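On to our target:
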Amino acid sequence: EESEASFEVAHVQALLIIAILKIGHGNSSTSWLLVGKAIHIAINLGLDNPCRPAPTMEDRRSVHVFWGCFVLDTLISAKIGRMPRLRREDIERIDLLCEEGDEEWDSWLDCLQVYTAQKVDPGLPLFILSTFNRLVETCKILNVCCVSRHRRPIPFPSGLYLIQRLTKWNDEQRFPFKVDAKSIESTSTTY
């Protein structure tokens, strides 16, 4: 019998990749189950514990993987109306990814030649880590809405709350998006 101790971070990554493939094939329920298994393995491996001082590259990669579990769990749970397995309080003590290093500043390389008809400046940095951190931050907001929807016996104005939180989050960004207040007002009445 195989024990959880025989799993590695690569197993969690593989489950997350398969879950993404299942989403692409329209099989969200299976994806949700796969992400759940990935989360159980990740927790068993201790990926939910904050990194020790001066983390190794492997420790940093483990944080990436755990955040991937959180993001997929939140997005899939929101899509299928289930309670996320990981909640904001479960991940509060885990730092976002360090936005320094080669991954953040690598230049765009269209290796599949998808954008051959468009002009893409290959000298621009990708900002992979900071973009992922912004995704995590928005998923934290969505996660609170998903959890609240399941915990409250009375209807929770999750749409309005979500818009307010996203607007507040946007205002705190170094480069905020332009938000049309009129469309926020008209959208909030539909929830």
